[in-house]
Structures are given as structure tokens and as C-alpha cells.
């Protein structure tokens, strides 16, 4: 176990070494790369809080993240809300001892609060190393395994209902494009606004408050900065029926792909299968580009959203986010959120079927 002890910690992580580690780890996601993290820091008005860990056995690992705030109350988010997964990437396979050493460093030499949202595929390792740490929330992420190629996913992983809806969308003339122009970004944000209104009504929330929260989380300039920072890894898919854009999905594609945001006009989509064709197109592109996995984000067990993802071959993977803190910042945040919810959330009324296009980073 001595090999898992730390030899050196550098913060922020030197970009060249970080890039080398990201390239060596087969599970790296775009959100864990230097370019995406720098974009997150700029978007949040924060600093690069990444940390390079060098172990006695020669393993190098990077914790991507942004540092929010100054001094004794600073927080490290790996990664910030709605910015994708963080956690560790490494140039060799990690053991629980490596993670334990990192957690010990963060506990004693890190900021006042650290939020960790690791790659769901590393969940078992984190669970072993983080025993006793407060779990922010348990979750289930849908992940499609692409390692056997697109044809295998299409023929064996997609269920019959999904394949039927894809054929229907093709017959009805649904067209899917991948573009990242400002005009198409605006079209996606319009779909997102439509979806936010629907989600707010479903959850009994005042729509204006939901739109305010979404505008803070996903302002146009933040998505533009991410697009400009990661270039071709920013893949925005839009499905059109006639001359109307009806569904959209934002995928961050690198060694692996991550579907981070989705939205649709549920009335315009109807039973056309447009959203199924949209996702199938994105999954095919990721598989043909050599991605090992297509991450589809979180969904509740037994929900319509999880069923939608299962139909596309996604397997639910339980995982958890963790928190370390030396000051009771989370308690204060919980009180503030509870007060806001009491003021702005109404008792839900009867609702129809839940939308199936939403995803969260």
C-alpha cells in the first residue's frame, strides 16, 4: 500500500501533464479535460482549482475542478453544478488506496468545502475509498456501452419499441442535424425554455422562478464559452419536423460521449419518434468515432426517463456524489434552499406523462 502514498501535489494542475493524464485514461470525459474546466472557471467567475497528484508508485492522477470564493470559505467543485462529471482521472488503474490518499489531502489541505461528482463507472472504487464521507445524493446514471460497435448497439441494445419509433421518424421525414452555430444554439435554448415551463408545471413550481434558475445555470454566454473552448467536442443535435425544430440534445464527445442537456417541444414531437431518432443519431456518431461509452445522465429509478434511456441501450449505474467540509456551509445552503422552495413551489396539480427528452449534466 506504500505505493499509493502521495509524493507530490500541484495545484492548479500543469496543463501539459493534465492533458497527458486525460489522454491515458480510457474513461476520461470532456468535462474532466483542461479546456472544459478552464471554460467552467471563466463561466462561473472562479479559478482553476484542479490538483495533480503524483504517487510513490509513479501513478499520476488529476482532480479537475474549479475553486469558487476566496480565503477560508473557498469551495472546490469537481465539477460545478450542470457542468458534468468530475472526480479523478489517472494514467494508470487506481486502487482504493490512491483515492484514500487524495481524500486525506483534500480533508486536511483542501478548501473549506469540496464537492465531488465522480464518473459513475468508478462508483465502486469511490464507495470503498469514501466510506464514512457524507453522500450529497445517491443517483443512477444511464450508460450505453459502445465498445462492440454501432451495429451491435442498434441491433441488440435498442429495444423493439425504440427501433419502431426510429423507423416512424424516418418515414415522417424527421431530419437530424449536428451544428453549433449561434442560430442553432438559440433554437436549442428556445426548446429548453419550453421544457422548463413544462417541468415547472409538473413539479408545482412557479415557472418564472424555474426560468430564473435555468438562466443562471445555462446562460447563452456560458454555453458559447464551452463551445469555443472545446471546439468539435461540442456537438449540438437538433431534430426538425418540417420547418420546425422540435427536439435537441447537447453531447460532449471525446474519448467518451456525455449527453448533458436535452429539451423538446412535446406537443410538436407527439408520436413522431423524433427524440428517439435524435438520440440514435448521436449514439451512432459517438460509436463510429470510437467512443467507449455514451453517458446519458441521471434519472430516477422506474421513471419514464429511465425507461426511455433503457430503450436506447443504457444500463442504470448507481453512484454517489460526496462532500467534504470544514465549515457548515452545506447546512446554510440547505436552509436557504428550503426557504426558497417554501416561497416559490406550489402544490402540484394533475399532470400528464412526463417528458422524455430531459437530461442533466
Give the total of domains. 2
Taking the sheet with the most strands, its summary is: 11 strands, mixed
- Structural Rg: 20 Å
Order of helices and strands: EHHEEEEEEHEHEHHEHHHEEEHHEHEH
Shape type: globular
Task: Tell me the name of the CATH homologous superfamily of the largest domain.
Answer: Gcn5-related N-acetyltransferase (GNAT)
Number of helices: 13
Strand content: 15-25%
Assigned CATH architecture of the largest domain: 3-Layer(aba) Sandwich
- Share of helix, binned: 40-55%
Distance between the termini: 35 Å
The strand order across the widest sheet is 2-5-6-8-15-9-14-13-12-11-10
Looking at the structure, the CATH topology of the largest domain is Aminopeptidase
InterPro entries: Acyl_CoA_acyltransferase, BioF2-like_GNAT_dom, PG_Glycine_Bridge_Synth
Organism: Euzebya pacifica
Domain BioF2-like acetyltransferase: 160-310
Protein name: BioF2-like acetyltransferase domain-containing protein
Please explain how this structure is put together:
- The protein is α+β, with helices and mostly antiparallel strands.
- The protein has two domains: about 1-135, Aminopeptidase (3-Layer(aba) Sandwich); about 145-320, 3-Layer(aba) Sandwich (Aminopeptidase), CATH 3.40.630.
- It is about 40% helix and about 25% strand.
- The chain has 13 helices and 15 strands.
- It has helices at about 15-25, 35-45, 95-110, 125-130, 150-155, 160-170, 180-205, 205-215, 220-230, 265-270, 275-290, 305-310, 330-345; strands at about 5-10, 45-50, 50-55, 60-65, 65-70, 75-80, 90, 115, 135-145, 175-180, 235-240, 245-255, 255-265, 295-300, 315-325.
- It has an eleven-stranded mixed beta sheet with strand order 2-5-6-8-15-9-14-13-12-11-10, with helices on both faces. The chain has a four-stranded antiparallel beta sheet with strand order 1-3-4-7.
- Strand 5 (about 65-70) and strand 6 (about 75-80) form a beta hairpin.
- The longest helix has 22 residues, at about 180-205.
- It is globular and about 60 Å long.
- Residues about 340-355 have low confidence and may be disordered.
- Pfam families: Acetyltransf_6 (PF13480).
- This is BioF2-like acetyltransferase domain-containing protein.
- It comes from Euzebya pacifica.
Amino acid at each position: 500500500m506504500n505505493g499509493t502514498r502521495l509524493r507530490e501535489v500541484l495545484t492548479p494542475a500543469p496543463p501539459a501533464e493534465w492533458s497527458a493524464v486525460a489522454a491515458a485514461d480510457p474513461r476520461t470525459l470532456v468535462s474532466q479535460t483542461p479546456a472544459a474546466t478552464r471554460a467552467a472557471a471563466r463561466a462561473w467567475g472562479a479559478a482553476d482549482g484542479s490538483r495533480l497528484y503524483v504517487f510513490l508508485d509513479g501513478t499520476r492522477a488529476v482532480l479537475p475542478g474549479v475553486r469558487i470564493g476566496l480565503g477560508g470559505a473557498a469551495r472546490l467543485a469537481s465539477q460545478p453544478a450542470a457542468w458534468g462529471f468530475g472526480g479523478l482521472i489517472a494514467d494508470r488503474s487506481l486502487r482504493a488506496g490512491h483515492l484514500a490518499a487524495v481524500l486525506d489531502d483534500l480533508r486536511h489541505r483542501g478548501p473549506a468545502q469540496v464537492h465531488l461528482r465522480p464518473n459513475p463507472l468508478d462508483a465502486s472504487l469511490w464507495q470503498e475509498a469514501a466510506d464514512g464521507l457524507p453522500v450529497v445524493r445517491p443517483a443512477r446514471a444511464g450508460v450505453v456501452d459502445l465498445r462492440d460497435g454501432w451495429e451491435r448497439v442498434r441491433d441488440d441494445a435498442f429495444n423493439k419499441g425504440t427501433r419502431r419509433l426510429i423507423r416512424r421518424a424516418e418515414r415522417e421525414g424527421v431530419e437530424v442535424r449536428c451544428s453549433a452555430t449561434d442560430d442553432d444554439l438559440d433554437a436549442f435554448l428556445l426548446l429548453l425554455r419550453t421544457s422548463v415551463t413544462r417541468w415547472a408545471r409538473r413539479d408545482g413550481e412557479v415557472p418564472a422562478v424555474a426560468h430564473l434558475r435555468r438562466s443562471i445555470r445555462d446562460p447563452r454566454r456560458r454555453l458559447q464559452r464551452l463551445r469555443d473552448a472545446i471546439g468539435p467536442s461540442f456537438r449540438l443535435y437538433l431534430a426538425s419536423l418540417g420547418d420546425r425544430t422540435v427536439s435537441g440534445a447537447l453531447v460532449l464527445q471525446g474519448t467518451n460521449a456525455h449527453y448533458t442537456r436535452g429539451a423538446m417541444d412535446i406537443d410538436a414531437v407527439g408520436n413522431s419518434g423524433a427524440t428517439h431518432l435524435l438520440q440514435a443519431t448521436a449514439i451512432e456518431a459517438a460509436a463510429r468515432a470510437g467512443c467507449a461509452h455514451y453517458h446519458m445522465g441521471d434519472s430516477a429509478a422506474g421513471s419514464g426517463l429511465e425507461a426511455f434511456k433503457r430503450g436506447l441501450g443504457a444500463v442504470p449505474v448507481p453512484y454517489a456524489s460526496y462532500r467534504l467540509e470544514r465549515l457548515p456551509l452545506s447546512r446554510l445552503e440547505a436552509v436557504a434552499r428550503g426557504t426558497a422552495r417554501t416561497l416559490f413551489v406550489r402544490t402540484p396539480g394533475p399532470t400528464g406523462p412526463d417528458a422524455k427528452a430531459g437530461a442533466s449534466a
